[in-house]
Amino acid sequence: MGTPRDTASTQAAVVIERLEEEYPDSTISLRYSNRLELLIAVILSAQCTDERVNTETEHLFEKYDGPEDYANAPQEELAEDLNSITYYNNKASYIRSACEAIVEEHDGEVPDTMSELTDLSGVGRKTANVVLQHGHDVVEGIVVDTHVQRLSRRLGLTEEERPEAIEQELMEIVPEGYWQQFTHLCIDHGRATCSARNPDCDGCVLADVCPSEKGDSRIDLASGEPW
Predict the structure, then answer these.
(1) Is 126 a catalytic residue?
(2) SS3 sequence, 143-170?
(3) Binding site: which residues?
(4) Residue 145 bears catalytic tag
(5) Distance from the CA of 5 to the CA of which of 13, 17, 81, 129 falls in 20 to 30 A?
(6) Domain of life of the organism in this record (predicted)?
(7) Per 3-state DSSP, what percentage of the chain is helix, strand, and coil (rounded to 5)?
(8) Which CATH number fits the domain that encloses residue 216?
């Protein structure tokens, strides 16, 4: 079992410093060329790997050009175009509805505020944060995906379970200048080392400060379950 630093802020600083050294080129892995493509890619990424989304959107973005195309697409056709994505029927419906609103209420442009984005179908705070950060260069929160949720609990940065509550705690301890990069670092580390089911604690650069480290700890703080 690792020994976390005395305060959550100090623990967060150690986590960021070490992960930056481990993943110096950490950035978003979804592929897109404009704000609408980013929005659609993030909607599709819910409970689906970025790798799968990138494979699917390669042909999707060639077929559909602009929000009008998605808004006017038959539900069945768009769903078929997404059929290798998890929950593709629902996501096709979200995309069509969101694009209808973008056309009718936002002059065809992806909105640039949290409230307007979260009013769109299929867009929660996590998705809106990604679009704001990477589409509009607006950073007003921390994207809490499954990797951030898992790592922040394992590392003792929060005991909260809901993404919204985790985000609020992280915003208090992660320096604002790192709000965007913190997510990418957690995602890279979650994929490479700190996986959900079988984390490689022996090869982890954070093992000595991680209270969930499998060497002595009996509990995975992410799930609350025994290892």
Answers:
(1) yes
(2) CCCHHHHHHHHHCCCCCCCCHHHHHHHH
(3) 194, 201, 204, 210
(4) yes
(5) 129
(6) Archaea
(7) 55, 0, 40
(8) 1.10.1670.10
**Number of alpha carbons in the 13 Å side-chain half-sphere of residue 210:** 29
Domain assignment present for residue 91? The answer is yes
> Global pTM?
0.93
Long-range contacts of 114-119 (CB under 8 A, 24+ apart): 114/140, 114/141
Amino acid at site 159: E
pLDDT of residue 218: 87
- Among 101, 135, 169, the domain-final residue is 135
95-141 per-position pLDDT tens digit:
999 999 999 999 999 999 999 999 999 999 999 999 999 999 999 99
Binding site residue list for [4Fe-4S] cluster:
194, 201, 204, 210
- What's the domain count of the chain? 2
| Shared-domain flag, residues 98 and 159 | no
Q: Which of 50, 81, 91, 145 is an active site residue?
A: 145
Tokens of 124: 């929660």
Band the pLDDT of 215: cuts 50, 70, 90: confident
Catalytic position from the list 126, 188, 214, 220: 126
For residue 13, the enclosing domain spans: 8-26+143-226
Region of 103 on the Ramachandran plot (φ > 0 left; ψ -120 to 50 alpha; else beta): alpha
